[in-house]
Amino acid sequence: MSGAIATWDPRQLPSQAGRTIVVTGGSTGIGYWACEQLAATGARLVIAARYAPKAQEAIASIRSRVPGAEVLHVPFDLTSLDSVRQTAADIQGLGGVDVLVNNAGLVVASARRKTTKDGLELEVGGNFVGHFALTALLFPVLRDRVVGLGSLSTMMTKLDADDLMSERTYRPFRAYAFSKHAVHGFAFELDRRLRAAGDARKSLLAHPGYAVNELSEKRPGVITNSKGWQRLGGYLSAPVAQGKDHGAWPVVRAAIDPAADSGEFYGPGQMLGMRGTPVVQAPVTSSSSPEFGAKLWTLAEEWSGVEFPVPTAG
Question: How far out from the chain centre does Cα 279 lie?
Answer without folding.
Answer: 17
